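As the next step, I wrote out a protein sequence along with its fold in token form, included below for the reader:
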Amino acid sequence: MPTTLTAFADVTTSDSALRRFLHGLPGVDTVGLEARAASLGTRSIKTTAKAYAIDLAISMIDLTTLEGADTPGKVRALSAKAVHPDPTDRTTPTTAAVCVYPDMVATAKAALNGADVKVASVATAFPAGRAALPVKLADTRDAVAAGADEIDMVIDRGAFLAGRYLETYELIKAVKEACVRPDGSAARLKVIFETGELSTYDNIRRASWIGMLAGADFIKTSTGKVGVNATPANTLLMLEAVRDFKAQTGIQIGVKPAGGIRTTKDALKFLVLVNETVGEDWLTNEWFRFGASSLLNDLLMQRQKLSTGRYSGPDYVTVD
């Protein structure tokens, strides 16, 4: 089995070559995709398996605040919650990361103080991505220089939807290079497609392949800033893409559904999608994340119920 992108070297030599490849991918069976996603969503997880799944889901959350009103105090409070999601139960796992704007990276880094929680930063003119390339790269470099462990970039949906596929590829590749620090280490790169704006499943599949070919460490559904964000169907499609990519290259890529995942029941459905589509190799926060901050409180309430037999309610968890 190949373990590099050598087999795809010719695909990205020109816009026409990349277009031929992307439009040569198998068309998405909409009915079949949505039916399989719905079917997997009916699986039931109970007792011990449910407790394990809840802890796993907590460990996969990128706890996020991306508001114009963000303050250093809010970021410090969020960082404290990421380290100890339930202060009354220190067996609760930490979240995977805290995700903030670039100007708050240093604050989050200091607040975490070496804890096993990553600092992720959005970049490239999030959420619209409407800025010149030098601005997007400066945005990325500033976040990395401030200590970001991960960068969540947005593609230019206008360029993609206009068919400028190579431009989209080159943007991701340039941002990937901007993630490299002077010492040679690099922040991991998550590429956000904003699937709610891509209109079709075929476009989501094509965007997934562009991201993977360009060096994404993760492919991510959404910014959480539009009406339609992560769904079981679009996440299933992206999981199938990373599965097929690994089969052809040996390279593993992570997946991050973001936006609209609010309940424990929702989270468990997504974990079933992961297990049934790509398997246990992806059932870790190294390769699967939830961009869903409001989800954490529901997971904590369900965890408390399993532990005590009583439903504590929202007054017993912190409000972000």
